[in-house]
Amino acid sequence: MEGKYTFADGLEYRDKKWHYCDGYDRRFYTEICSGLKPAGISQLTNLDPPRKIPEGCYDCGDGFYNPKTRVIIDYKFRFLRNADDDEHEWIVRTCRKG
Hints:
98 residues, alpha+beta, 2 domains, 2 helices, globular
């Protein structure tokens, strides 16, 4: 594959010497570009301020997940998919909850 991939926030992907999210530097891309906030004002997501998550749901990266219905909807509240058992477990273990 040839070409260049740029994420929506402006981060340009590199297949060599990729240092973003490498385990050593945990800053979001917006923090790399604009700097860190003062102590006590942590940035929770790359989007600042973060999206408001509906009560009882999780922000799973491409939408909101309702663990009661096991349905993922996009950020415009349109159906995306049903979560299988593995995805359900990963979301409730790792994602931000509203």
